[in-house]
Amino acid sequence: YFQEVQKHSVHTLVFRSLKRTHDMFVADNAKPVPLDEESHKVKMSVKLRTEYGSVLHMPTLKENLREKGGANTGDPYGHKQYSGNEGPELDYMITGTHPYPPGPGVALTADTKIQRMPSESAAQALAVALPPSQSRLDANRTAAGVGEIYRHAGMAERSQPPGVTMAVMEAGGNKNSALMAKKAPTMPKPQWHPPWKLYRVISGHLGWVRCIAVEPGNQWFVTGSADRTIKIWDLASGKLKLSLTGHISTVRGVIVSARSPYLFSCGEDKQVKCWDLEYNKVIRHYHGHLSAVYGLDLHPTIDVLVTCSRDSTARIWDVRTKASVHTLSGHTNAVATVKCQAAEPQVITGSSHDTTIRLWDLVAGKTRVTLTNHKKSVRAVILHPRHYTFASGSPDNIKQWKFPDGNFIQNLSGHNAIINTLAVNSDGVLVSGADNGTMHLWDWRTGYNFQRVHAAVQPGSLDSESGIFACIFDQSESRLLTAEADKTIKVYREDETATEETHPISWKPEIIKRKRF
After folding, report:
1. Where, in residue numbers, are the WD repeats (predicted)?
2. Model pTM greater than 0.70?
């Protein structure tokens, strides 16, 4: 037996529901509690002291006081406000600038002198930014601690995060410093460097000159070329001393050992050779690379040779035993450049196609850090001779990095070409040489480009044969040698007649935009 459900009209059901709802919420609990003036005052006072305590003593501009209704020096929360022209904190009188003449070379007389008076708002701003008065400095100097300084400044002592305390109390207790707008960092003025000028062109190779090295004694230098020869030249006169043949393809790298009378070379024939310069003969071959060898470097303190190749690897060789100690694998394309140093990381490689730079652990034979910031091929890496930093060259930017972790320092922008080579001297002159024959000279510290050079090609060469494949400073760092596509070696030196007056720095303190990419 089912009891029949009583049927109601929709109208009845809706109104019954409304009544139920009304009964349920008749107390109206959602309404806020009426504001208690005393509690609100305490709450706001605590908030003011916590968040704005360090600036509550600051003077209030007259304009603000007028807007708030006259010179009311108090606020509802019990904190005294000082007007712009009163109060113990400001004991300065701002009268304007010193008299000055209207232009350079004009004598300062009663008729010519100019003196500007500051506007009221400017005077107020200046007063706020002025250093603390002597009495405040003396009191702060003898204060027992931060708490004492706070009490002297008219603020209750309280615990604060150390950062807040230091920000307020920096500059000898000058609380105004916390409010001063921080200026955007600007590029410091670059060091002046004399311009470099071409003074000798050496010819003798029959192909592109691909690599260059200066021997430690600074008597001669060596070049490797696409004509498959290695030539040794007298540095002082530029005369050819010796030609070495043995490679069967382009010679891509040469270096002279400072520890032994050996010259090392590598080339596109996959060969790495060690030449004994007492007999001018090859005494060792280092076999292992599967493709063209693009670069090599010697470790400065141990008998280790490092080579890099188109087979995507770099290899560590024991100079004496010819053994391959490590094969540094990790790059995904040709490795264009390699550098060694005594400090960690001891090996740095740059890949021309996978656009990365790797810093290697020499002992373990593994990558320490991979830098992926470059967006285009990295063909050149150079280590600064004095600083623990290095630079890498790519068509997108020249980037500077800090060892040991490869922290980014800054971009050197403006050399919009394929950068084949970089060189730097102890003076902080960085040179970048490009595929289109242009050479830019930079101030290492600031990244300021102080000179651009585009030397004419050798007579009889095409303009398209203007290209710089390698550059290096000699041991005295007074000469710069470049290996070029017009089959010549060009030698530059500093212009001794130049001064800072004849060649001023056209520099503006622009805001630094140090982007990571």
Report:
1. 202-243, 244-285, 286-327, 328-370, 412-452
2. no
